[in-house]
Every structure is written in C-alpha cells, then in structure tokens.
Design brief:
With 105 residues, the chain is mainly beta. It has one helix spanning 94-104, and strands at residues 2-7, 12-24, 27-34, 39-44, 48-50, 73-78, 83-88.
Length: 105
C-alpha cells in the first residue's frame, strides 16, 4: 500500500512504500521508499498519512529494479600469498555504485 510521508530532506510530502518499522524511545520509525524520487528515507510515525482517492492511481515515477543476471564482484586480497583475485560479493561496494551512476549520467 502506498502512503504519504513527510521527507525532512526534501521538505515536502511524498508518496512512499513502507519497507520496515522499528521502535525507538520516542516512538516508531519507518524506512520508506519514495516512489517518485527513487530514494529511501526514515520518517517518524507521526509523519505518515493514508493516501486518498485518485492520487493512489497515479503511476510511480520511480521503480525498484535490478540488473538481470548481474552479480556484485569485489577484489579479494590475500596478504599471506601476496595475490589479488576478483570474486563474488554479497553486495555492491561504493566504488562500483558510483561508477555505475557515472555511466548512467
């Protein structure tokens, strides 16, 4: 379900999908994906509203996607044997993400 949340970073109300909820001392925090900005943000529970009426039917401007059959790789360094090999990784490293964004621009 799509909600409306107030983004402190963007200083406006945005449509969002709630990814997760966790409890803190001052209330609940929600991790949200902003469907029109392709960004993740955390918002307090008092900054979320139900999306009403025809606004829920407007298509999203951003979509979550993945590269088909592309797995993250990283450089594995073995200091004992003085070797370096490229191998699988659990997640993309920061340099790879920055390089990909430059290619898209």
């Amino acid at each position: 379900q799509v909600y409306v949340v107030f983004s402190e970073e963007l200083k406006c109300w945005c449509r969002a999908l709630v990814e997760s909820v966790w409890c803190q001392a001052d209330g609940y925090q929600l991790r949200c994906f902003l469907v029109d900005y392709a960004k993740y943000c955390c918002v307090a529970s008092e900054n979320i509203r139900v999306l009403a009426g025809a606004f829920a039917e407007i298509p999203y401007r951003a979509k979550k996607c993945r590269l088909h059959c592309t797995k993250p790789l990283t450089l594995h360094i073995d200091y004992c044997e003085n070797t370096a090999k490229i191998g699988p990784a659990k997640r993309w490293d920061t340099a790879a993400i920055q390089h990909f964004r430059k290619l898209l621009d």
